[in-house]
């Protein structure tokens, strides 16, 4: 049996990012592309994004980016639009926070785009505005629907 001369498998390279610190050239959108902000991560390489043209799209993370470029909620991305499906797109590039700020300075992104905040499009999506009433009744303990219904049943038995 031959002797192993390698240093192991892919787990050896897992923690390394070869070109993490490098400055890259700023990529602007072209025809058939649009800037967007991630609203929700859906799993299975898909996400929901709000494009800056005002439309919400279901986007697919391309294979070259999967498990190499981590995309989170609130990130600014560049998506490629599909000719045959207007409500879907493909993630081409993820912008860093510095690149997104530069795009905003150049006027590519609108002024209402929030770069570092994660919950920016969720005003109407969540049920956070539900109010609960925690007031106590006259006896000092919190009343519940089951207690009041049992009292009504006992009153009707007296008749």
Core attributes:
159 residues; alpha+beta; OB fold (Dihydrolipoamide Acetyltransferase, E2P); five-stranded mixed β-barrel; extended; translation initiation factor activity; TIF_eIF-1A_CS; RNA binding; TIF_eIF-1A; RNA-binding_domain_S1_IF1
What report would you give on this structure?
By secondary structure, this protein is of the alpha+beta class. 14% of the residues lie in helices and 23% in strands. The radius of gyration is 27 Å and the shape is extended. A 5-stranded mixed beta barrel has the order 1-2-3-5-4. The longest helix is centred in the C-terminal third of the chain and has 13 residues, at 145-157.
Q: Going by CATH, what is the homologous superfamily of the domain at 29-105?
A: Nucleic acid-binding proteins
* Regions with little confidence, pLDDT below 50 for 5+ residues: 119-125
Proportion of residues in β-strands: 15-25%
Indicate the overall shape.
extended
Strand arrangement, largest sheet? 1-2-3-5-4
- Looking at the overall shape, the CATH architecture of the domain at 29-105 is Beta Barrel
How many E strands?
A: 5
Question: Can you give the mean pLDDT?
Answer: 78
- Report the span from N to C terminus: 95 Å
State Rg.
27 Å
Q: How many distinct helices? A: 2
The structural class is alpha+beta
CATH topology type of the domain at 29-105: OB fold (Dihydrolipoamide Acetyltransferase, E2P)
Sheet with the most strands?
Answer: 5 strands, mixed, barrel
**The CATH class of the domain at 29-105:** Mainly Beta
Helix proportion? 10-25%
User: SSE string, helix = H, strand = E?
Assistant: EEEEEHH
């Amino acid at each position: 049996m031959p002797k192993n001369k390698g240093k192991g498998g892919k787990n050896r390279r897992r923690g390394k990012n070869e070109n993490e610190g490098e400055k890259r050239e700023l990529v602007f959108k072209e025809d058939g592309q649009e800037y967007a902000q991630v609203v929700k991560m859906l799993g299975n390489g898909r996400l929901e994004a709000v494009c800056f043209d005002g439309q919400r799209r279901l986007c697919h993370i391309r294979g070259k980016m999967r498990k190499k470029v981590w995309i989170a909620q609130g990130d600014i991305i560049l998506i490629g639009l599909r000719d045959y499906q207007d409500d879907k797109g493909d993630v081409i590039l993820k912008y860093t926070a510095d690149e997104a700020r530069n795009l905003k300075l150049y006027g590519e992104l609108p002024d209402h785009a929030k770069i570092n905040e994660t919950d920016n499009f969720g005003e109407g999506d969540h049920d956070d505005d539900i109010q609960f009433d925690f007031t106590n009744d006259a006896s000092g303990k919190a009343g519940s629907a089951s207690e009041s219904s049992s009292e009504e049943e006992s009153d009707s038995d007296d008749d």
